[in-house]
Amino acid sequence: MGVISFSFIRLLKKYSLLQKEYEKLTQEGREKVNKVIEELIVSSKDFNEEIKKKVLLELEQISKSQKESLKETTASAQEELLRVFAGIATFLKAEVMAQSKVFGALVDRAVDNVQKEYRSQLEAYRQQSLKKIEESLFNLIEEVASKVIGKSLTREEHESLVIKALEEAKKDNVF
After folding, report:
1. How many whole angstroms separate alpha carbon 121 and alpha carbon 116?
2. Exposure string (b/e) for 51-72, b if CB count within 10 Å is 16 or more?
3. What gap in Å lies between CA 160 and CA 34, rounded to an integer?
4. In this structure, how many other beta carbons lie within 10 angstroms of the beta carbon of residue 20?
5. Cα 57 from chain centroid?
6. DSSP code string of the chain
7. 138, 170, 169: which is closest to 154 by C-alpha?
């Protein structure tokens, strides 16, 4: 971007210098023509129409030449400006594309991180819920067992009783 800006500034300076040079040449041409006219008038009292026409014709040719030179220089400067602007546009387009890719990657990573966080929170909630269900189930079984047996069992006694019941059920092919 710096190179393009530098080229653009250099081109504007060149254009400004050419415009000043044109103005200088135009002024110098006028001064030369005026000087020639004055010399002719001074040297010749009989300033006739033919000399006047020649001087005016010469002045007109100088003016046309300077105008053509300015047109060519202006056209060249315009072409250079268009090339610089096209370069700037291409650079900006590439920069926008690169930035959008970077932004897209950042968004993808952020979404992935959020999904991972939700999954871990969901798994933690699931484990906590299973633990609560397991505790409730043990409490329920303990309560049912105490009503059925008529006494309260410790957790170890209860586990041993449940394991024994499951083993018997397995032997009897209940499940």
Report:
1. 9
2. eeeebeeebeebeeebeeebee
3. 129
4. 10
5. 59
6. -HHHHHHHHHHHHHHHHHHHHHHHHHHHHHHHHHHHHHHHHHH-S---HHHHHHHHHHHHHHHHHHHHHHHHHHHHHHHHHHHHHHHHHHHHHHHHHHHHHHHHHHHHHHHHHHHHHHHHHHHHHHHHHHHHHHHHHHHHHHHHHHHHHSS---HHHHHHHHHHHHHHHHHTT--
7. 138
- For residue 44, give every residue at least 6 positions away whose Cβ sits within 8 Å of its Cβ, in sequence order, or none: 51
Specify which of 3-17, 46-60, 78-92, 111-125 reaches the highest per-range mean pLDDT: 111-125
Residue 68 has pLDDT above 90, yes or no: no
Kindly list the domain boundaries of the chain, sorted by start residue: 2-97
153: nearest Cα among 131, 168, 138, 165 = 138
The alpha carbon of 111 is separated from its chain's Cα centroid by a whole number of angstroms, namely 21
**Tens digits of per-residue pLDDT, 135-144?**
887 777 777 7
Using the structure block, give the residue that is written with the tokens 């103005």.
23
Average pLDDT value for residue range 74-89? 81
pLDDT of 73 above 90: no
Q: Match 């269900």 to its residue by tokens.
A: 133
Q: What does pLDDT average to over the chain? A: 79
